[in-house]
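Lecture 7 notes: from sequence to structure.
We start with the chain below.
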Amino acid sequence: MDLIKKSVHINNMRGKSESQITLDDDVNVPDKYPDINTLITKSGNIEIDTVKISKNKINVKGKLNFSIMYKAESDKENAVSVQKLDGTINFDEIINMDGIEEGDSVGVDLKIDDLSITVVNSRKISVKALIDAIAIAENIRDEDFSTGINNDDVMYIKDTISLTQIAVKKKDLLRVKEDINLVSGKLNINEIIWSTKTLTQSNVKLSDDKINISGEIAVFVLYSSDDGPLQWTNATVPFNGDIAVEGCTEEMIPNISLKLNSCQIEAKPDYDGEPRILSFDGIISVDVKLYEEQQFEIVKDAYSRDKDLVLDTKKTDFENILMKNIVKCRVSEKIKQDNKIDDSHVMQICNCTGDIKIDETRIEEDGIGVEGAIDVNVLYICSDDSSPICCLSDSIPFSQKIDINGMNPDCVYQINATPEQINSNMSGTDEVEVKATVSLDCIAFEKLSADVVQDIEEKDYDYDKIAKMPGIVAYVCKDGDTLWSIAKKFYSTADSIKEINDIKGEVAKDQMIVVAKKM
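Predicted structure tokens for the same chain:
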């Protein structure tokens, strides 16, 4: 039997595994660095080197990069020295996931849940980290759907299905280079002590065969000068670039995540030869998934007056998008100093950064509930001259519902959380008010299935059986009967039943009709 088929590129979530990786190591201070007196602040990020898939296992190799800023011990009276120390802890971990095999498409996301760095002694620190590991296995395949039959003697009916196919899946890199000029009044750069880089505003625009990505990176740099106190600067680095994506159209549905990687900030001279320019060089990794909504008809049932048709069907699973929704969650809270140093007070705020963590998500009626927190670090100048820069840290919880109509426990979804805005203001000598906006970008799919006709086998009818059936039958319609099912049962046609019984629409339960055999 000649079936008309349509090929669709389907992406189904095959499995999801959530686990935690624990790292614990002591790190010695290299000889070139001075002794540690007091730890001021810390930061860390995860780099994944390799991901290897085997039966029921995912092998992840990578490293935890960490940095600390500390007040150094000095023999000189009233001397202040602030230092930065970088380090790396390698890891090689196994994530278990039942059902996966070598060759499957698996994405692994590692995020620091907790980073604890303590001073063991002046030449040694203890680094402990808890890393959340989320692995998602996807089954990407082409499925053929039968949409028609090339045979005039065969009668068939169709069913309409709606599905979302993955049109593009791609990873790429966007390089950002920018020079930051110090404003008037800032002293020349001697040595960069500490820096933070945060991807904040971002915008994605689709067009034919390309994606435009634009946004901003918030940059903070703390540095020493030849003469005078510690200096710092806050700047915004804009970025705008195109990524070539063959087959992309502006009608597609984007699910794109951006991650800031491999950023370098160096001091360089200006036109007068003075070190007053900060050269920013960074890489944004771009994970692209583009979806396309499709609605078409597939063959549901068929019969013929010439042959007995046996339909070979297969249950096919697919997904259809429910909604893509971006929600802004606004957070505001006042945080206080827990441990004051010699009764020092907040004199001036230098910088405020925050890491977003989603602790729990749950499917609710017509939406998804999200519970999370922003781990905030506020660097400030304090009134203690012996320790001029301090850090105030706290975790600010947030709760938000993402409205998505039609959510049910079988739905699958992905949420990308990014800080859109974080700032702080002094609300007292020992209190800081933090205000933040968290962007929750969610895409949700409903899981569906359909019995798809793969092939049709033709067999000869049992004409003796058909000949014994009456030519005309009076039939009382049952619940679930349709013109099609009745016509197939009595070897008639839907048009014939309509004409004989003067039916305009469908039959109803307990309705008496006359059916004429057409064979």
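Points to note: DSSP finds three helices and 20 strands in the chain. The two ends are 21 Å apart (CA to CA).
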